[in-house]
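Structure ticket #2291
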Amino acid sequence: MEILKDKVLAKYLFERYASNPKDWRFIISKSSFDDGFFDATVSNRDEVWQLKIDSIYKPMPIVLGTKVDVDSTKFDKRLGYSTIPFGYRIFDPPVIMNLLDKLAQDHHSMNDAIMNRNAVNSILSSLETVKPITGKNYVYGPLVYTENNPVGIDATQKQVSKKLGLQLKDNLRARYSGYGLILD
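Resolution: structure written out below.
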């Protein structure tokens, strides 16, 4: 099992996305182990990557990942076919104005949160995912955050998650000499 780290992993996944920006999914959940990290699954129709993220609360998290042998159609079945695919979308001023208009119209509704989510989902789902080009404005997402990974984790994925978690702890100890020390 080849484990990629940080920039190498990001570059590889971006290149894979750029070669075909259709039907990607990005799911983040709490780790299936009590290791304090987050698990993520990134997939398209051809491949699935299992990631371990040290924190979702900092701008440059430490991320490790490996390709896993999982049927990517499990995502569509468990998440629902109506889930908006992950990707970069061109976010030009007319699109922004359309979104703001919809949010303003729904502002006085009893179900503001639901109406706002529906407005955002409607606009995002109408925009095609594209390969980003330098100098243009994009919005990317959605990242689906769940308490537990809705795809389900089998014994092999649990082993991968555990191995990634141990490797991530080793990387954190190497980067931060005091990481993991228990002080009395």
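Closing remark: DSSP finds five helices and eight strands in the chain.
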